[in-house]
Known about the structure:
Blueprint: H1 7-25, H2 32-39, H3 43-47, H4 53-79, H5 85-95, H6 105-110, H7 115-143, H8 151-165, H9 175-191, H10 199-213
Helix pairs in contact: 1-2, 1-4, 4-7, 5-7, 7-8, 8-9, 9-10
Amino acid sequence: MQKKYNPEQTVAKILSISTELFNEKGYDKTSMQDIVNALGMSKGAIFHHFKSKEDILGAVLKIMADEQMAAYKSQIQNEMKGLTAKEKLTSVMSASISIDTNKVADAITKGINDPKIVMGMLKYNMEISAPFMASILRDGIADGSIKTDYPDECAEVLILLLNIWCDPMVLKCSLNAYRKRLKYLQHIMAASGVDVITDEFIEKDIKFVESLYEVKTWQ
């Protein structure tokens, strides 16, 4: 009896194998032919679901963003009852500074200079993380812990600066310059009434970036 075709399982298999290849070889060095060979499928079967390698990467990044967002929402609902919105956001931001165990994280780190990966990550952060952050800011306006007339814009600016300007592998800089960028971001957000960048966050972020990128040449 012929096995019934299951498109959901096929997509999941394509994404799983592609993630393993991105992790092993890096995104840039993984070709569509590599993916075809590893899957044992025809190119037509893969292109039926994804137009290109970039399209596959987009799906992988979206899964990562969705999983991360689900974890944040669970954290707020289950561990942060009674906290102000400002306290919730500072806690979520602090918790976000950890080594991502998702298998594609290493591939993304290797390809951080690839504009497709940088823009793909930024796209999903702006589409998923920024609205989530803005909703917390609006809660903060309501409970008095946040003072801004621009919750959506503040969330977008914070996401943009953290993921581009304050990523030393995207915009290379010395350790001292990196610390100053974070301190200035802290100043900008506080002046905007969104005082959620703490000194603890800055120190934790610096240690995280040093370990993630194994930076040895910072001064």
